[in-house]
């Protein structure tokens, strides 16, 4: 099931009207606020409403041998996040041989259910986007630049 173009366009238009730069991509949208770019994907909820998924690429990469320490640190950071979570996604490297360690990208992810696409729910989406980006960015920067920095 996919959200109709009209629904995605309504979400994009509402975000643009609130001052964000929004660009359509294959199956969603890229939302830019200053230096930050979020990927936004929407799909209908079978029970009604729309499920919006947000992905924030943090440009952080972790090699396989550092995973135990990173996972422990990410778990602690996720406990303090209210608007999303940090996840690891494997990075596909076509040039790497089979013996090369895997590399993972650190991503911020969030999911928000919208009752409908009315003005109140679209304003709630905009606020969620703002808080999600700020919270994830602050948590990562605090960890990377703090006295107990996450080593990758």
Task: Explain the layout of strands and helices.
Elements: H1 5-17, E1 21-25, E2 28-33, E3 36-44, E4 50-63, H2 67-79, E5 85-90, E6 103-114, H3 119-145
Antiparallel strand pairs: 1-2, 2-3, 3-4, 4-6, 5-6
Protein name: Sensory transduction regulator
Organism: Deinococcus hopiensis KR-140
General description of the model:
This protein is an alpha+beta fold. The chain has a single domain, classed as Yope Regulator, Chain: A, CATH 3.30.1460. It is built from 3 helices and 6 strands; from the N terminus they run αββββαββα. Strands 1-2-3-4-6-5 form a 6-stranded antiparallel beta sheet. It is globular.
**Counting H and I runs of at least 4 residues, what is the number of helices?**
3
Mean pLDDT: 86
Query: What oligomeric state do the depicted chains represent?
Result: single chain
The neighbouring-strand order within the major sheet is 1-2-3-4-6-5
Task: Name the shape in a single word.
Answer: globular
- What gyration radius follows from the Cα positions, in whole Å? 17 Å
Note the beta-strand portion.
Answer: 25-35%
Structural class: alpha+beta
Number of strands: 6
Distance between the termini: 38 Å
Largest sheet, if any? Answer: 6 strands, antiparallel
Helix % is 25-40%
CATH topology: Yope Regulator, Chain: A
Helix-strand pattern: HEEEEHEEH
CATH architecture: 2-Layer Sandwich
Number of domains: 1
Organism: Deinococcus hopiensis KR-140
Protein name: Sensory transduction regulator
């Amino acid at each position: 099931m996919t959200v109709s173009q009209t629904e995605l366009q309504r979400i994009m238009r509402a975000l643009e009207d609130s001052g964000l730069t929004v660009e359509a991509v294959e199956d969603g949208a890229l939302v830019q606020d200053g230096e930050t770019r979020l990927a936004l994907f929407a799909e209908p909820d079978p029970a009604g409403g729309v499920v919006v998924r947000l992905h924030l690429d943090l440009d952080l990469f972790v090699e396989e041998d550092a995973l135990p320490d990173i996972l422990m640190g990410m778990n602690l950071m996720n406990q303090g996040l209210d608007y999303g979570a940090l996840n690891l996604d494997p990075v596909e490297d076509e040039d790497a041989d089979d013996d090369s360690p895997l590399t993972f990208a650190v991503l911020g992810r969030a999911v928000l259910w919208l009752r409908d696409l009315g003005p109140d729910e679209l304003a709630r989406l905009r606020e969620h986007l703002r808080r999600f980006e700020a919270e994830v960015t602050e948590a990562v920067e605090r960890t990377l630049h703090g006295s107990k920095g996450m080593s990758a």
